[in-house]
Structures are given as structure tokens and as C-alpha cells.
């Protein structure tokens, strides 16, 4: 039985990663002693924005962080809609009494900006944010399982990275890997996680079968 389906945000609900990378790069360039590579930026993902900035800026990180927030707000017009089918998928889960939390590495400020831009700021049953000190999705998932009295086999997490899949595997919950974003690498995800989906529609079909198993069959008359 499935009782809870958690969602990641960037790269899962919307194609925001290119915008996030541009906002971050433009914000920290004046405060670093070299031009950051895409690999260096990606290595900071999973921390919230303060943690990301502190990882690459040694001095004046507060100024760099303020600049990042400004860039993030201004650039978000690049990403104002969720992926096609996401609204319908969340609605389908809620109609079937599935608890739908958001579990993101983002900080509260940028998460609020994104959800407002997407029109999803009143959508999720719970929202858990990232930490500036460490990647905390595992702890946040376990917290939700305890809070709602959900067993591990009753929980799915939808995320777009190998780290999401690895985190879920390490604590014994199922990750449904989202491989539909512009920067996704479906083959890499599939090599690690058999539950990898290249479209929201494909994931919806999978969850439709899982949800149907929740419903008791009517006994014959």
C-alpha cells in the first residue's frame, strides 16, 4: 500500500536547474578567485543556498548570497510553469488520499519564490528544506515517516539525481527517478535505479497501478 509520495523540486517539478546555475554563477563570480566550472557548482547541490555559497566563497559570502537571491528572483521568469503533467499528477495523488510532501535541498526563501512563481505555494501537505551544513534529505524523509506513521514500504520519493536514489536506498525507501528535465541523464539514472522514468506520463501510469492496489476489491454479490 502506498500512503505518501514525496517530491523533489528542481529538475523534478520544474526545469529550474539552468536558471539556478546561472543565478549562482553570476552571484559568486565577483567573490571567487577563479571562474567556477559546472562540476564545481553541481558539487554544491543538496545544500541550501547559504551552504552552496559558503562552499565556494571564502570572503563576503553574505554579499554573494544577497546577490544570489536577487538574481534568482529576477531570472525566475525563465521558469514559470511546472513540467507538463505535474499538476495533474499531484492532484491525482491527493484525490486518492496520498500524502504529498515536498522534500528539497533548497532553502526556504528560494523555495517560496519558486512555488509562488509556479502557482504551487498551497499545494503540498508538508515542506522540508535543505541545510547549509549537510545534505539532509535522508533525515527529512525519516522525520516524515515518523510524523505521519508511515512505513518505509508505503513511501515513494520522486527525485532527479543519483544522490536522491542513493539516499533513498540507504534508508530503505523507494526512489522513483525523474529523468525528464533538460539536464537529465536517463541512462546514468537507469544504470543505478530501475525505477527511472523519462516522462511524467510514464510515472503517472506506474503510480496509477500502485494506487489501485490500495483500494479494496468489492466482494462478489
Automatic annotation (TrEMBL):
| Superkingdom in the source lineage | Bacteria
Pfam family, any one: HAD_2
- What's the protein name? HAD family hydrolase
Would the keyword Hydrolase turn up in this protein's UniProt record?
yes
Annotated GO CC locations: cytosol
The UniProt keywords, alphabetically, are:
Hydrolase
GO molecular function terms noted in the UniProt entry: phosphoglycolate phosphatase activity
Q: Which organism is it from?
A: Diplocloster agilis
The answer to whether UniProt assigns keyword rRNA-binding to this entry is no
Name one process (GO BP) from the record. Answer: DNA repair
Amino acid at each position: 500500500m502506498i500512503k505518501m509520495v514525496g517530491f523533489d523540486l528542481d529538475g523534478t517539478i520544474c526545469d529550474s536547474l539552468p536558471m539556478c546555475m546561472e543565478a549562482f554563477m553570476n552571484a559568486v563570480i565577483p567573490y571567487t578567485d577563479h571562474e567556477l566550472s559546472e562540476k564545481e557548482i553541481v558539487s554544491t547541490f543538496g545544500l541550501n543556498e547559504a551552504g552552496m555559497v559558503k562552499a565556494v566563497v571564502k570572503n563576503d559570502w553574505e554579499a554573494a548570497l544577497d546577490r544570489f537571491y536577487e538574481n534568482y528572483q529576477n531570472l525566475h521568469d525563465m521558469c514559470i510553469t511546472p513540467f507538463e503533467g505535474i499538476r495533474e499528477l499531484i492532484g491525482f495523488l491527493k484525490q486518492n488520499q496520498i500524502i504529498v510532501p515536498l522534500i528539497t535541498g533548497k532553502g526556504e526563501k528560494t523555495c517560496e519564490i519558486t512555488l509562488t512563481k509556479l502557482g504551487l505555494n498551497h499545494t503540498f501537505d508538508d515542506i522540508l528544506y535543505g541545510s547549509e551544513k549537510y545534505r539532509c534529505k535522508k533525515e527529512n524523509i525519516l522525520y516524515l515517516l515518523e510524523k505521519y506513521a508511515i512505513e518505509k514500504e508505503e513511501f515513494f520519493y520522486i527525485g532527479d539525481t543519483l544522490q536522491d536514489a542513493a539516499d533513498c536506498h540507504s534508508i530503505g525507501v523507494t526512489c522513483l527517478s525523474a529523468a525528464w528535465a533538460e539536464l537529465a541523464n536517463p541512462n546514468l539514472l537507469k544504470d543505478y535505479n530501475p525505477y527511472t522514468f523519462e516522462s511524467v506520463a510514464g510515472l503517472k501510469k506506474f503510480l496509477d497501478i500502485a494506487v489501485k492496489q490500495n483500494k479494496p476489491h468489492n466482494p462478489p454479490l
